[in-house]
Each structure stands twice: as structure tokens, then as C-alpha cells.
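Q: How would the C-alpha cells look for this protein?
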Amino acid sequence: MSSSALTTATNARSDTPALSLSDIRFRYGRAALLEGLSLHVSAGEIVGLLGRNGSGKTTALRLVTGTLQPASGVVQVAGRERRAWRRRALARELALVPQELQVAFDFTVEELVRLGRAPHVGWLRGHTTADLDAARTAMRAVAIDDLATRRYRDLSGGEKQRVALAIALAQEPSLLLLDEPTHNLDLAQQALFFQTLERLTHERRLGVLAVIHDVNLAALWCDRLLMLADGRILADGTPEQVLTPDNLRRCYGVEARLLPHPDNGRPQVFLSQGTHSHGQHSPAR
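A: Here is the predicted structure in C-alpha cell form.
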């Protein structure tokens, strides 16, 4: 392919949303969980998905991966309807970082990260030099190359979550899905994880959709926020546009004030004392 043709192809792909959900409907039994859900994620942006517990955030991720099937609507990955993708090809296009990586065997870090190359490995061959290079590049990208020979079970929570991110990066996806990736990390580990994610998103032009409970973390690190309520997107925009007292009241049922972060001006949420939602105290997380 000529350099001009390659540039044209690259630009065309960058103009195509990494992820698009259109008018998605999904039910658990008779209960409607998602009703007309529509959203998109572009290459090179981190989009945070906010909402109360049980609002359908993780369900939305499972509809993208194909673990669940919508009753109606269209899910597109890289401009192509998800159900049209072959499983192995889709695994090269999108990767999921779960809340907690479940590892049944006593793997080393490098052995685990190599598993991320599975979608690229043929049935009749093992890992090639290119596969090993990709795994080691992924480990360097999240600063765990010095942990290569360590046993996964012996790592700290923050280290384990960076391993999960490295496995996803080893797939070389265009779309990255994260399900509450920092829910059990301390403040320092949360900051390191999101700093790493932000850098990689922009360097690799990834589209990132992250389910996040902590609205203040989401405001600091996400380019755009989606607020989910009643099975639909209640608000979609910058943190300043989405995190308003009215939206927080409508989504979470809480009364809150917002003040700009002293470093970057991003909104930070402060709950009013005695704030309750349906009779229970609701923290800003």
C-alpha cells in the first residue's frame, strides 16, 4: 500500500467511532433495564459511564462484548455491526479490563500478558517473535516489565490491575472497555492507573469506555462523561456539562455542590451534609 493510501485508510478509521450503540433495548425477564440506549466513543478519548448501581452500566459492556444480546438496536465496533464480526477478529479489535482478574493457575506476569496475544496466534503455531515483542511492549507501557518473572498471586492490588491492562493492550485493540477498574485500589494506585490509561489512550488512539463509580475520579480523567438513568443516557458531554446539581439529583437522588479542582478546573462533587437517597446515605462514589 502506498504512503498516501495508508494515510487515507488511517484517517478513515480515525473518523469512524470506535464504538456506537444505537437505540439498544435489553430486558432481564420482564423488567426493562435498557430502553433506547444510544452512545458513541471516538478514537483517542476516554469516556466515563456513570450511574447508580443496577442502572445497566456493566450490562452495556456485556452487550458490546457479546456476552449478552440486545432485544433490539445496533452495536457497532469500529464501524461494523458487532454480530458481523468473527469472534477471533472481534477479540483483536476490543479488549476488556474487568473489576478483578480471576487467575486459576500459578502464572507469572509475563505468561499472563502473553495470553493477550491469543487472538493473533494461529491454531498450529505458538507465539512468534512479534507476539513476544508485543507482550513485552505492553508490559513496558504500564511499567510492569520489572515484574515479568513474579507470580501473579504475589502482586499487590495495583500491580494486578496494571497486569490486567497489559493483557488487554497485548491484544492491540482499537477499543478498550473497563469495568470499575480502580474500585479496590488506594489513592496512589488510582492516580497511577488513570495517568497510565490517559497516556496510552492518546498515544495509541484508543477508544475507551470505562464504568466508574467515583464521579470525582471520572471528572478528573475522562474526556467525556455519559450519565445513565432509566435505561437511557441522561447527560452526555464534558465533565462540566454533565456534573451539575440537577443531573446529580436526577441520576443519584442527592443534593450536591460542585467546586472546580484547583489544578485543572474540573468539577468536583461535594455532597450536602445529611444527603439521602431513598432513605440511605449516598457518598460521592
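Residues 55 and 148 are 38 Å apart (CA to CA).

Residues 1-13, 279-285 have pLDDT under 50 and may be disordered.

Upvote if useful.
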